[in-house]
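[step 3/7] inverse_fold.run input=structure_tokens len=114
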């Protein structure tokens, strides 16, 4: 009977170690994926902003070369377009802060449990 208790205790300890290992690897995987997504998103936003800026610069150069004047609305809309490229980042940051205030940070809870 002593051997069964010991083996069960060993089994329980081993299961606990595996569970903790799985939780830490899941957290690490989530952080890696989140980091890759942020970098990819940032690169895409920078390319979109560059494309809008470059395209507008070409259009403005074409207008100036042909003797036309650049309208203020064109300048404003090009600036708003570039700002709109980065708005998902700021919106996501605001929503994350609201979520953390309302529900608490889940990553902190997992780290505290370990």
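[step 3/7] decode complete -> sequence:
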């Amino acid at each position: 009977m002593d051997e069964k208790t010991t083996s069960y205790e060993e089994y329980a300890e081993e299961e606990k170690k595996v569970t903790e290992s799985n939780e830490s690897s899941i957290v690490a995987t989530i952080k890696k994926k989140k980091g890759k997504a942020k970098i990819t998103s940032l690169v895409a936003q920078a390319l979109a902003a560059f494309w809008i800026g470059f395209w507008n610069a070409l259009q403005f150069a074409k207008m100036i070369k042909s003797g036309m004047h650049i309208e203020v609305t064109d300048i404003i809309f090009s600036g708003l377009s570039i700002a709109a490229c980065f708005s998902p980042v700021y919106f996501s940051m605001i929503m994350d802060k609201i979520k953390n205030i309302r529900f608490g940070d889940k990553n902190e809870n997992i780290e505290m449990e370990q």
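[step 4/7] annotate
Residues 2-65 form the longest helix (64 residues).
The helical segments are 2-65, 72-103, 106-113.
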